[in-house]
Amino acid sequence: MNINSLSKKILFLLFVSVLLYIFSMFWSISVDRQMYLDGSNFFSGILSKDSIWPYHNDDWVNRFFINLLNQFVLALGLKLGVTNLDFLKFLYGFGLFFTSFFIYVYCFWVSKRACNFLFFFFALANLIVCVMPSNIFILNQAITSLSLNWLLLHYIFLGLQS
After folding, report:
1. What digits encode the pLDDT tens for the residues 50-65?
2. In Å, how far from its chain's centre is CA 98?
3. CB within 8 A of 103, min separation 6: which ones?
4. Is the pTM of this model over 0.85?
5. Is the separation of the CB atoms in 117 and 111 below 8 Å?
6. What's the rounded Cα separation, in Å, for the pair 55 and 52?
7. Contact 42/56 with Cβ under 8 angstroms?
8. How far apart are CA 158 and CA 85, in angstroms?
9. 101 and 150 Cβ atoms separated by less than 8 Å
């Protein structure tokens, strides 16, 4: 087996893994996994806020920035006047499950700009090996934090300016 055919097989497996990850996130949204445990509390808390920017955060843990990122899509929908509850649930789930995905897409863009995909492949391997098997809702803030850490590592080790 030559190197070219092996690399094509690896790229194909990576592509299939990413597609399965996207499918699993849409499946999670369709079965309302975003409402699991304290997700429904966060959702109702966001809907009941009467502030300049709707968000909900529990005071006992330090995840304010991650919650703002994850709740951005729903808050934007509310600010744009969306009132359909099913669509608001979809926006809430989309923000929760796709924020980290878009950060990984940005990591790919940073790697492409640097012409060095080593850290992106490490990030993708981490996503496939560690995140996908443990993709449960209670780890959602940790998954978003992990993707932000990978983005920071891209900028630190690839020597790029923002």
Report:
1. 777 776 776 666 777 8
2. 4
3. 144, 147, 148, 150, 151
4. no
5. yes
6. 9
7. yes
8. 43
9. no
